[in-house]
């Protein structure tokens, strides 16, 4: 068991969620019309906000989660304690595989990832209540360990190689 | 429960594994020096081979799995029954998040994904024997449902949006 | 001046253009609804066809030109003599920057890149006639040297570094 | 001729160059070992700093220029007046095609892009002096119009389509 304490205070959690909603307002998503906001909390309490930034050549699109991460890393921060993601959809939406891979490079396996419903907070008695991982207000709490199991990461590039195989 | 029968014949499985090793020989990986081969079997039995094709601007790299998929799709095939992936590493190596996202677009949640150790077939009594998902020869059998749980996909782009949130 | 002879026969040129139109039919572009086809001729005369293959996470999209290139390279071919690109738009459409970067890795600076109007062949007297680079039928002939001037490529990664700067 | 005045003051130019060098210090480039820094000046004088952030799955890499852009856009800024890019190489290094495509989405064709040599300022009489585009200190001044001629952009997605072609 880890000694690491992921517990954020209620205030910190609310700040992070609020930041994700604010981040979403800066979306540049004229092609998908699917705004996404992400907020990444660093170990020192700073919050980095990201939105999805699309491109006419769709492959040039950078998602909200990756925007938040490159922003933080380029500011010299590589130690993170939580990520929150929100869209305009009332259900919780999970990061894409590309973002999961970039999260994997910088975040601990069990760092909390909070998927926020677009109509947060959901009232008591809402549809998803009691489902696995659903916490207060309809948030789904997960982690990169759960979202990208058996992941590929930096350590694999250093593994000894065999010329072998048939 | 699905009626779909994923069972390949032993001959088909061996052909697919052989194709993944062959595919790896065409790698263009001067930067990572980490060759990867992938082989994708279509519903009609055709096998599409992919290798990782890197770029001096690293972000331009396209992995073996994605190469195999775009190859097949661009040939008019969108119905797949199995994917095999192999590297030069003696342990099994999992697809990156980007490839998982692209696999997600085209393959069924439970389509077999075979991760082949670089020294396949491992002899009886090898290290990973008996571990979860490990089958004969040291292969790890998995699926995109397992590798990209709670995934983001085409259906999410069509969800009703709320202007809401706080 | 180069000794290399880029001249294709008229038959080869027509085959390549025809292949680009065929390639476009295999597009998977439910998000942009902007089908693109590409055809890449190898030194041995083989033609590799690519279409744009999009993803629900837009950044996972791989364009037609890149599909054609990874297809060819993964088949063991790295020597190319011409690329043709076509869309459904009546004017010629240029490759995006990402594709230019991938073309740069594998193709000569002066290899012909033929941008085909979607209504090819345009009749004599059409609008773009006489414009720079426009040849018979409304095709625009260009090259990666023209499309990606002062490019970044493999040789730059090997340049000596300075710890310097202020 | 445009009314836009791209002229930065000498102080602004020096601030931007200094910011690019500072940005480079935050590089996460364990794979290429090729640090890059970028600094983007907004119309309101704010400077956004980006570094290249690589990934174990090389295709997940985001360059310095793109980091700077998504950072600025996600902060609500989409109007830019200059970009500076620097590496550890004593010669000037150009943005990759992917970055050019993302720059294209947000920056004017003639916005100054300053490529800074890693050993800036070069002394009078240096090698590249007098070469096209080279200005004081060995800087190469260019623009996205020059770096990505005949580019693909947002306006092309709206062009009328023909079902046509042969
Ligand atoms: Zn994403
Ligand atoms: Zn991959
Ligand atoms: Zn492209
Ligand atoms: Zn770049």
UniProtKB/TrEMBL annotation, chains A, B, C, D:
The keyword Zinc applies. Zn(2+) binds at residues 63, 96, 99. Residues 11-155 form the CMP/dCMP-type deaminase domain. PROSITE patterns: CYT_DCMP_DEAMINASES_1, CYT_DCMP_DEAMINASES_2. Its cofactor is Zn(2+). Substrate binds at residues 52-58. Residues 145-166 are annotated as: Disordered. This enzyme scavenges exogenous and endogenous cytidine and 2'-deoxycytidine for UMP synthesis. This is Cytidine deaminase. It comes from Favolaschia claudopus.
